[in-house]
UniProtKB/TrEMBL annotation:
Member of the two-component regulatory system NreB/NreC involved in the control of dissimilatory nitrate/nitrite reduction in response to oxygen. NreB functions as a direct oxygen sensor histidine kinase which is autophosphorylated, in the absence of oxygen, probably at the conserved histidine residue, and transfers its phosphate group probably to a conserved aspartate residue of NreC. NreB/NreC activates the expression of the nitrate (narGHJI) and nitrite (nir) reductase operons, as well as the putative nitrate transporter gene narT. Residues 160-351 form the Histidine kinase domain. GO terms for cellular component: cytoplasm; membrane. Its EC number is 2.7.13.3. It is an enzyme of class 2 (transferase). This is Sensor histidine kinase.
Amino acid sequence: MNAWKEERGTSQETVSLLQSIFTNISDAVLVVDHSGMIVTVNAAMERISGWSQDELVGKKHICEVCLGMATCQEESTCTDCFFKRSQMPSFEMRLRTKEGREYPVAASSTRLPEGAPGKMVMILRDMTDQQRAEKERYQHKLTNFVIQAQEEERKRISRELHDGVGQALYSILVGLNVLGQSKLSGAMKQHVADVQQLTAKAMEEVKRMALELRPSALDDLGLLPALRSLIKRVEKSFGLTVDLHVQGARRRYQAAMETALYRIVQEAMTNTAKYAQAEKLGIVFEDREKEVVVTIVDDGVGFDVEAAEHRGSGLGLFGMKERAQLLGGSVDVRSAIGEGTTVIVRIPLPKGEAEHGDTRPDR
């Protein structure tokens, strides 16, 4: 730095400023000589690489800490090395840390002007957080796509069951009724009656499957009517007493939001009915100014939430949280052995909907 000052006539104040920048900048900076030996590094380089200044300066060659550019492939790793160019404004490289770990960094390099013959300065920026964020965004988009595709497929199959298989079974049942009214022997008449009963049961099963896949009320009438229908089915199937309390406006929401809330409540109710040994379940649905909050409380045996999530047996908790997170919301599950379970779902309202509301009534 002093030699540079003498050659360029740079003031002490400027040199001090440059030295301060070199020392405190968050990006790693290293200078290598014409042969590739490291001649100086800053504190950020020590932090990123794990090597100390004493371990790097004069002792490490650039090739000992560089695993190649991101575009390099196998044997061609060094054929187009940045070190062979006078300047590379932007590229990705893989840094080798002291522990031997591969570290992705965004890099730029340039040859220093005369006065520092052959020396090259490199600036490295940590990309791990950026890559992690990009990976999370990609997973978020992929999960959203999968959920949307799943719901569309459920809707299609539900309609085919109802309009196709259901109608076919109904036609068969009508034919059997007509046949049963004709003059048949006692044994044949009983056989027709048995087939009628089996067909009626099949119709009920098809109807149940269609409702489980995608209740038509959710699309035609809205979230609250669909939830009331779900509650009746759960009470009938499991003997569970369910109370629903609605606070605030009763309206329609965006399709994705209604679907997510329905599936989350459905999962929570199913878990309670199957595993909680509960007698009562309460649901409070609140339409607030900027969000919808649904609280589901049961008086069951409870469970260890952390242990269940750690074992990967979180009773659908992961799926519930994924659906909420896709809409910028959250699912908070609170439970303990012998103390029941509380699930709190928060989904923010889209800005326009929060300010003006949706004029479609939810009956």
